[in-house]
Design brief:
Number of helices: 1
Distance between the termini: 33 Å
Largest sheet: 2 strands, antiparallel
Order of helices and strands: EEH
Strand order of the largest sheet: 1-2
Radius of gyration: 16 Å
Amino acid sequence: MSTTVATPDADETCTYCGSRIFDHDPICVRDCDDNCGSPMYFCNYACLSAYIDENNRTTGDTCEWIPDESDCC
């Protein structure tokens, strides 16, 4: 899977809150299960976390732990 790395514009805004990302500690996220579409920028981890929670982005994407199984740690 090939991805091009590019620095976003100086005025790029946060996907979640709309703040300028470079006024904070920016994070770039790309959904590579969907043909590595356009990157989404967040101004910090709090906005990324809130976006994940509000959009149910972990549903179906995480491991399931069943504590009753005999082979669990």
